[in-house]
Amino acid sequence: MKVTILLICSCLAWEGLGKPQFPDQEKDPLFWNTWAQRTLKNALTLQKLNQNTAKNLILFLGDGMGIPTVTAARILKGQLSRQSGEETQLEMDKFPFVALSKTYNTNAQVADSAGTATAYLCGVKANEGTVGVSAAAVRSQCNTTQGNEVTSILRWAKEAGKSVGIVTTTRVNHATPSAAYAHCVDRDWYSDGEMPAEAVQAGCKDIARQLFENIPNIDVIMGGGRKYMFPKNQSDVEYPGEKKHFGTRIDRRNLVEEWNNRMKNKNANYVWNKKELLSLNPNSVDYLLGLFEPGDLPYDLERNNETDPSLTEMVEVAIKILKKNPSGFYLLVEGGRIDHGHHDGKAKQALHEAVEMDRAIGHAGLMTSIYDTMTVVTADHSHMFNFGGYTPRGNTIFGLNSILSDVDQKPFTAILYGNGPGFKVVNGLRENISTLGYGKLNLIINGVLPLACQKIIHLISFSFPFPTSTPSLPSLSSGENNYKAQSAVPLSMETHGGEDVAVFAKGPMAHLLHGVHEQNYIPHVMAYAACIGQNRDHCMSSSGASSLSAALPSLTALLTLIRLLC
């Protein structure tokens, strides 16, 4: 421990000599001017717009991925590579067009994930808590469903002959994916076991059932939610002894078995673990149903690498299957557990989920082309998450601020929540986080010291292990995975935020996503780019013009021949 204290003091003294906490090249104006000029040249190439017809459409939805989350994830991505982080580029940062989306629901200033999913998938704003129905439908009132159904871009693509897929880290019948295929006045009606008896008797269908009945033969479905497909009290294949994972269906239907029977002559596969998924040959699979957990998939930090696929792995398999269709495909990908991490006040879980989704975005980019694939990345809503406090360059995103509060003289982390479970009062005062299991030494090292010092001490810690009575030195991105950041207002669950969210776009017609738009504008642009749904007139006129142009040489030759003969 003495060695560490000496190192800390030495590093602080070294910093006091005026050593900058950033690369030397950044002191030279030429560095910044060159970078800006290079960016300008790239921007000028965008003057020639990509007006191709999009053969493929991919929507990446980061649930709860507000702009502060994007920025913090960018820093984390860099710090995971031992960089300071601020100058790092996310894959979505590289997209040439960016817009802002207004997320409110028809009846809510601060939106929920169901009403927003109806907006960016069906092109219609809706009430909170409802999926695939217009604002004329009332949450939980079954009799307001019929006649108020709205269809999604996934259906428009399927009807146009494209292959379609859904990939999520949540349940496949959770709010975001369900708006792609279901029409339900309550997002919580996962199976008939979660529905009021009167709603079932009135003829309303649960969301899991609609997944298999509403849009026949969705080509790829991957995520969690296994228990909602099986009869009540049927044990789970992966957790046979855990009752919380037993089937929930009161109607005793086995939806997976029904799917298998219906698809047995169609090159279809059902898988429930990573080994089965990765053993498939996508060239011989036309339909895939992958249900990897009874509920949501685990956080990426807690994922079992042997049994649970990553989001990137699921996306890779999905694209390999879908791209075989010569007419193209539509793929919805949800990084759904960003939202869950924030609700729990677990910023580390949320940000690692965002980094994993960005990895999947990059991988999808390698498997497709900007010339025929429109890719959009956005969020359904934000969260009461933020970070700040005049932290120095390279400060670990999970670390302390470099100053104490000038009111209660206690340290505080850069990351804070406006509300949530992280609110703690001890003896009438704000909790002193340096006394928590989060680790006083960890906070000092990761929150105050320069990045170079953090690296030195991190390396030394492996050579001189500490006694068990003192906190060990973690990696630069560490800290308790489930540490709940402090919040200003006590709530059992942190809430959504109401500000606009970013929309990143690339590929055909991506320039149409610009400025500030209503959230329901997004699927209309994507449909226009692909010539599906109600946006086909421009495609027909272009096709007609092309046919005429192609015919003109032949027509001219014919007229010339007639003139010569006559």
From TrEMBL:
EC numbers, comma separated = 3.1.3.1
Principal place of residence: membrane
Describe cofactor binding as the record notes it.
Binds 2 Zn(2+) ions.
Keyword Cell membrane annotated? yes
- What cofactor(s) does the depicted protein rely on? Zn(2+); Mg(2+)
The residues the entry assigns to the signal sequence are: 1-18
Q: Where does Zn(2+) bind?
A: 63, 339, 343, 380-381, 496
The cellular location(s) given in this protein's UniProt record come to: Cell membrane
What's the family?
Answer: Belongs to the alkaline phosphatase family.
What binding partners and quaternary form does the record give?
Homodimer.
Q: What is this protein called?
A: Alkaline phosphatase
Output the lineage of the source organism.
Eukaryota, Metazoa, Chordata, Craniata, Vertebrata
